[in-house]
Specification:
It is a single chain. By secondary structure, this protein is mostly helical. Helices cover 63% and strands 10% of the residues. It has a two-stranded antiparallel sheet. A hairpin with a 5-residue loop joins β2 and β3. The N and C termini lie far apart (73 Å).
């Protein structure tokens, strides 16, 4: 319904239509002497535009896609490290770790924790992702995920032992940072 006067006919427009001004407005005088501003318009029906719900969910979908990609990349890089000469050399001196395959268990614990982290974010609603504070925090965590995973595996390479299996990614990463600071 586009008319503001009761005697005029109604004009229905398709969903997601926009009105575009196509010329200068003009003033006309009606039969009763009132002035009427006439604005020439063109209807632009954009059937491929997104709905509000689609726009609100886009941030969530983009974030989760980035999370899946990061998890895949992290898993791939860890597999390379798992089968590296560096790990083989470490296992030569750590018979207990080799027998109990702690290098593989460390890999699995890292992937499991990263997957749980992403799962926690899959459970959040699109509305949650539209909060600036929440989205910024989740994005910051995502950007650090691969580095923390690699730090935890490097900690196993450098130190070994079973306690690393129980260490969270954040704790292992802090421990690696502390070791780096001590060496400096």
């Amino acid at each position: 319904f586009l008319s503001q006067y009761p005697g005029e006919e109604e004009i229905l427009l398709p969903p997601r239509s926009y009105l575009e001004v196509v010329g200068p407005s003009r003033i006309e005088v009606g039969e009763d002497g009132r002035r009427i501003r006439v604005v020439p318009l063109k209807v632009n029906a954009n059937s491929s535009s997104s709905t509000v719900e689609e726009l609100e969910g886009r941030r969530r979908e983009l974030f989760l896609a980035a999370g899946e990609h990061t998890l895949h990349e992290t898993r791939s890089k860890l597999k390379v490290r798992l089968h590296s000469d560096e790990v083989e050399k470490a296992l030569v001196h750590r018979l207990f770790d080799k027998i109990h395959v702690y290098h593989v268990k460390t890999f699995e614990s890292i992937v499991e924790e990263a997957d749980k982290w992403l799962g926690k974010h899959r459970d959040k609603t699109a509305e949650w992702y539209n909060g600036e504070f929440e989205y910024a925090g989740a994005t910051r965590e995502l950007m650090q995920l691969e580095g923390m995973a690699m730090d935890k595996f490097q900690l196993w390479v450098e130190v070994g032992g079973t306690y690393i299996l129980r260490s969270r990614l954040t704790d292992a990463s802090r421990q690696m940072d502390a070791g780096l600071m001590r060496r400096l």
